Every structure is written in structure tokens, then in C-alpha cells.
Amino acid sequence: MQITIRGHHLTITPAIEENIREKFAEMTKHLDQVNSMQVKLSKDHQIDKHSKKGSANHIAEAIIRLPGIELFAQATADDMYTSIKKLTEKLKRQLHKYRELQMEHTPLLA
């Protein structure tokens, strides 16, 4: 499985890259059909007028390509690690739903 990690307006540190690879490997360990995954991390430099601080300005997006389908999710938070965690939770729900649909459409062999 190929994981592509890109950064937009920020540098991908080895710690962030390892965090992503660890979470995505855990999430897809029971799913052999994953062709590729793309993760895009970005930082929005807008400033909140009230607190003079960027609010929810760390953005994590991912596309998981499976045979015949693409799953997409996006999450934002004040911290990149939190946005990555939210992103993986959203993708886990989508993958769980995908697996359930696959099980419903797969006939059981006697």
C-alpha cells in the first residue's frame, strides 16, 4: 500500500509522518484492497479576531482509493495531531461502513 503525504504551508516532520503512517496502517490492517492513500496537511494562516489566535487552522485531508470507490475525509483543529486523529476517526467510520456493505453483497459459501 502506498501512502503519499504532502504538506501545504507547513513542513512534514518525521514525527508527524510516523504518526500518520502508524494510524493509517492500524486502520487498514484488516483491509487488503487499499490501492493507495493520499494525505494532505495544511495550515490556514487566518487569525481569529477575538482571541488573536488561529482557530481550527490545522487541516488534514485524506483520500483512500479502493477498487471502484474513493473515500474522502477532512478534519480541522487547533493542533495538527488532533486534526489527524479526527481524520482517522472519520475514515474508520467510512471504512467500517464499506466493509459492512461488502459483507452484505458477498454470498456465503456452504
TrEMBL record:
<dbReference type="InterPro" id="IPR050574">
    <property type="entry name" value="HPF/YfiA_ribosome-assoc"/>
</dbReference>
<comment type="similarity">
    <text>Belongs to the HPF/YfiA ribosome-associated protein family. Short HPF subfamily.</text>
</comment>
<dbReference type="GO" id="GO:0043024">
    <property type="term" value="F:ribosomal small subunit binding"/>
</dbReference>
<dbReference type="GO" id="GO:0022627">
    <property type="term" value="C:cytosolic small ribosomal subunit"/>
</dbReference>
<protein>
    <recommendedName>
        <fullName>Ribosome hibernation promoting factor</fullName>
    </recommendedName>
</protein>
<comment type="subunit">
    <text>Associates exclusively with 100S ribosomes, which are dimers of 70S ribosomes.</text>
</comment>
<dbReference type="GO" id="GO:0045900">
    <property type="term" value="P:negative regulation of translational elongation"/>
</dbReference>
<dbReference type="InterPro" id="IPR036567">
    <property type="entry name" value="RHF-like"/>
</dbReference>
<keyword id="KW-0810">Translation regulation</keyword>
<dbReference type="InterPro" id="IPR003489">
    <property type="entry name" value="RHF/RaiA"/>
</dbReference>
<dbReference type="Pfam" id="PF02482">
    <property type="entry name" value="Ribosomal_S30AE"/>
</dbReference>
